[in-house]
Design brief:
282 residues, alpha/beta, Rossmann fold, 2 domains, 5-stranded parallel β-sheet, 10 helices, 45% helix
Length: 282
């Protein structure tokens, strides 16, 4: 049996994540009371249901209070479970609520929207700390989140970890859901060559420019060696998903080239996925 507990900040995308699990064939329940979790799992065993996703939010304080007890029961029954947490920056959540004009579950005449978001973050922090995967959705569209969750679901069905190599631009902010972050801004920058500026790290002119500098190959080797050295330890921890983020200034040239090469190199050692954050949004 495989149990997935989905939680996160209201407005961050929990419903989208739960729908992705439902689309993949999981039996999904939104906001199941903690007192019914054990009973539900027992009945699910009898009905041969093997994949279950349960969404928990800040309204279910009973579950949050009894979470350690509930997880201990799952451990005693040797039931495989994962906790995924959907997060977003406070400013983004404020904007989303103002745009949709929905009411936050913790806000009322005495509690403002910013106060409700802050209170909810404090309530859910223990659950976030125990999560197996955090999805940060501040810069993601619903479609991107759904795709990332589906990729994560697929990774969980494999005995090998999936490595997501993601390029990004520092000028647009760090990817908060990365396990490793590598800074390649010290490498020669194609941006300063007007003939190369309009290309990306996927294009031949930029590739030839970067490969003409030995320091680029040295950086690539060092990053690959670092990941290769510690990949066996991630396997021992039964990690199903590892995100390696590589950043340059704008996220178009150097970081794109390095992530492409890393994904190609590790494709023979693990399942790999590739995402170029700034190219996706351009």
């Amino acid at each position: 049996m495989r149990i997935v507990i989905i939680s996160g900040l209201s407005g961050s995308g929990k419903t989208i994540a739960l729908q992705a699990y439902e689309d993949d064939g999981f039996y999904c329940i939104d906001n199941l009371p903690a007192s019914l979790l054990g009973e539900f799992i027992t009945s699910s065993k009898d009905s041969q249901t093997r994949e279950i996703a349960v969404s928990i939010d800040s309204r279910n304080r009973e579950f949050l209070a009894k979470l350690p007890e509930q997880l201990h029961k799952l451990d005693n029954q040797n039931i495989n479970y994962q906790i995924i947490f959907i997060d977003a920056e406070d400013e983004v959540l404020l904007k989303r609520y103002k745009e949709t004009r929905r009411k936050h579950p913790l806000s009322n005449t005495m509690v403002s929207l910013p106060e409700a978001i802050s209170q909810e973050r404090r309530l859910l922090e223990p659950l976030k700390e125990q999560s197996h995967r955090v999805f940060e959705t501040s810069n993601k569209t619903p479609h991107e989140l759904r795709r990332l969750v589906r990729d994560f679901i697929g990774a969980g069905k494999s005995t090998e970890p999936v490595i997501l190599f993601e390029s990004f631009g520092y000028k647009y902010g760090l990817p908060r859901d990365a396990d490793y972050v590598f800074d390649v801004r010290c490498l020669p920058n194609p941006h300063w060559d007007e003939k190369l500026r309009s290309f990306s790290g996927q294009d031949k002119p930029v590739i030839e420019f970067l490969e003409s500098h030995s320091v680029v190959a040295q950086m690539l080797d060092d990053i690959a060696n670092m990941i290769e050295k510690w990949l066996p330890e991630f396997r021992k921890e039964n990690r199903s998903y590892i995100t390696v983020a590589v950043g340059c200034t704008g996220g178009k040239h150097r970081s794109v080239y390095i992530t492409e090469k890393l994904a190609q190199y590790f494709s023979n050692q693990a399942q790999t996925q590739l995402r170029h954050r700034e190219l996706t949004h351009s």
